[in-house]
Design brief:
Elements lengths: L3 E8 L2 E11 L6 E8 L4 H6 L2
Antiparallel strand pairs: 1-2, 2-3
Length: about 50
């Protein structure tokens, strides 16, 4: 896993974060980006799992 990025989003009364991480494919060795929009409390768990 390489770099990671987090952006804060605000929609109405809810506060959300968009997290982007780069994951290496085991088959081809190419890197892909995985994006997710979630609560700020869940960001550490998102980056911790592979």
């Amino acid at each position: 896993m390489a770099k990671k990025s987090v952006a804060s989003l605000q929609t109405g009364s809810k506060r959300l974060s968009k997290a982007i991480k780069m994951v290496k494919s085991p088959k081809s060795g190419a890197y892909t980006f995985v994006e997710a929009i979630m609560d700020p409390e869940q960001v550490k768990d998102f980056f911790a799992k592979k």
